[in-house]
Write a structure and sequence with these properties.
The protein is an all-alpha fold. Helices cover about 90% and strands about 0% of the residues. The mean pLDDT is about 75.
Length: about 290
């Protein structure tokens, strides 16, 4: 306890010596020190402000580059997806004549689904949800049209079969007529009556085959035309439903890509186009149903 007053006294003595030394420092030196301190503080403040502005600029440039990369990626993905959608829509209309057993037959549809999946990866959540709904609608329509196209393909196969038979009967008929003509021109028709009867029998048989195969083909063609009409109706109604889902996606894509600043005007134009398509589909449905009502 006795050492504390002694230490405090030594501290006061030391402090007094320091103040004596500082009082002996000339005012010019103090002025220089203060000026140097102020200059150093100014430089430090300026450097801090410059560093902050540089960091802000770097962050802004980074965000700009990221936004530009995303915009470029979206542009490529969106344009490719739209192109694949056109191919897939054309593929649906060709289903009745498409051989689904071939591996390359479904490539347009596979390309559309792959492009749509990429689109979902780069689009915002709302656009991605719209694309998901479009994929589901497209898948349901595809399965429905496959079922509707199957009997049409079967009828086409049968028509081709009877066409081959018809062509064969036609060739045999022409051959029989040629032989009969040669036989008649020989001038000795009575010397081989059996052969003459056989040739005429062949001619009658092939003529009957021609008539039967032609009638069968016509019957199958009528059935095919009826099924084709139903297929077209289902296709148009399905494409109408798809078009209803595509239009909002197109508006969303233009908004995300900042293509123009008149999105509302474009949305109105898209809605008007959709109404025209709906009217055209309704007119086609009435036209396809007209023969049945007679």
């Amino acid at each position: 306890m006795d050492s504390l007053p002694a230490l405090w006294g030594d501290f006061l003595v030391f402090t007094g010596v320091i103040f004596d030394i500082l009082r002996k420092v000339p005012d010019v030196v103090w002025a220089a020190l203060i000026a140097a301190f102020l200059a150093l503080s100014g430089v430090k403040v300026a450097n801090r402000d410059n560093t902050r502005r540089l960091m802000l600029q770097l962050r802004h440039d980074k965000e700009e580059k990221a936004a530009q990369r995303l915009a470029d990626l979206r542009r490529d993905v969106y344009l490719h997806a739209i192109e694949q959608f056109v191919h897939a829509s054309s593929y649906l209309s060709s289903l009745p004549a498409t051989d689904l057993s071939k591996t390359e037959s479904a490539q347009p549809l596979e390309g559309f689904f792959a492009a749509a999946a990429k689109l979902q990866m780069v689009a915002d959540s709302k656009t991605s949800a719209l694309v998901s709904d479009l994929i589901g609608t497209f898948s349901v329509l595809h399965l429905s049209l496959i079922g509707a196209a199957q009997p049409i393909r079967q009828l086409l196969s049968e028509i081709d079969f009877y066409t081959t038979l018809w062509e064969g009967a036609l060739a045999e008929q022409e051959r029989a007529l040629s032989v009969i003509a040669q036989f008649a021109e020989s001038g000795d028709t009575e010397s081989d009556e059996a052969r003459r009867k056989a040739l005429h029998l062949t001619l009658d048989t092939q003529t009957r085959f021609l008539r039967d195969h032609s009638e069968t083909r016509q019957t199958l063609q009528v059935e095919r035309n009826a099924l084709q009409g139903e297929f077209v109706k289902n296709l148009m109604l399905g494409l109408k439903a798809i078009n209803t889902r595509v239009q909002p996606i197109m508006v969303a894509i233009r908004r995300e890509m900042h293509i123009d600043n008149q999105i509302e005007a474009y949305a109105d134009a898209v809605s008007e186009q959709q109404d025209r398509v709906a009217g055209a589909v309704a007119a086609l449905m009435a036209q396809l149903d007209a023969p049945k009502s007679r």
